[in-house]
Amino acid sequence: MDYVTLAKHSVREYAPDKIFEASQKAKASIARLGEDQVINSTLGECLDDEGRLMVLPVVEHLLRTMPVEEICSYAPIAGIAGFNEAVEISLFGEGKSRFHVSAVATPGGCGALRHLVWNFLDEGDAMLTTDWHWGPYRNICEEHGRKLETFPMFDDQDNFHVEAMEESLEALLKRQKQVVLALNTPANNPTGYSMTKEEMDRTVEVIRRCGKQYPDRNITFCLDVSYIDFDDTFERTREIFDSIRDMPTNTMALVVFSMSKSYTMCGMRCGALVCLGETEEAAETFKAAMSYSSRSVWSNVVRAAQKVLVDINLNPELKAEADRQREGFKKQISARGQAFYREAKEVGLKCCPYRNGYFIAIPCENPARVAQILCEENVFVVPLAKGLRFSPCAVTMEKCLRAPKLIKAAVEKGQEESR
Length: 419
Known about the structure:
This protein has 16 helices and 12 strands. It is an alpha/beta fold. It has a 7-stranded mixed β-sheet with strand order 2-8-7-6-5-3-4, with helices on both faces. It has a 3-stranded antiparallel β-sheet with strand order 9-12-11. Strands 1-10 form a two-stranded parallel sheet.
């Protein structure tokens, strides 16, 4: 091809991102028909009943009153002063965690996943996750010369499929020295499912056993907790961390932390990859390696967002106010999700098991065609590999109650066309 000098590995097909493509179509329909005539369930942002972005008032106040020098200055590579402590408080509360917590700032959870894939897998290796997962997991792996392998998320009782995870993990251990198991819970994207404490206990027990059985392998267990503050109570959502104990020396536990949801700062692009170190030496080694990676890719991360995190979490009064405001947002989003889920059961629309959170997944055949049928009815969802994603976080209660019947009709029409 003339006038193209791309390296061979960068010449690849690029389909428009399904989420943003669906969002653009929805916005065009809203401009043409009006808000009331369109159900826009595409982007993963919290919108109120008037369609406005929901931002924690305490976050907005801190941003609007922040000195310009604090906004525009460089930030240290790993994070500003207090960032590590602020992340630890956000994840574990005021009491000191039993782990040696080491956090390195990243551009959102996406940046944390990039560091995970690049630093904990060798070239050509595969990362393991559930078959229902956030689509960019695969993109991030492939962009960095890695692959993504999946296992069935649910068993025939709609519980987390520990046995399938164990089988797939062992298969990877037989052929890779570096193995990463990444699980997005609580409030999984795209299903809204949260693993129970018992399921997490069983999962970690498998990792412990595999670590001992394969002493020449390195196992990294990563929890993507981007939606942790939109599930249950603070105490209950943090029970999953209690499962991580008595780990073999060839394992490491990491956490993907994001400010996009918990602090309603999607566009500010700030998060962290966090090491739950069993020793101080392990935590320090992690921070050094991630800091090198950060300097080599994005250098540093938005200072203003880090300052908001620090100001909130290191000030008990501000933190209490932010927690109170977030609780209101969480209740509104969960109420919409539960209403959709109940109505889906009422009309006979099969959904993946939903607990709480931004999204609900609807298994179906030919998802792209079903999404197109819905588009013709001015209902916009995100087509996935195994079904559709609906976003209660962005849809009013009235539309959450109306949507299941419309989606069921589209799924049935898609099935008829496939016969």
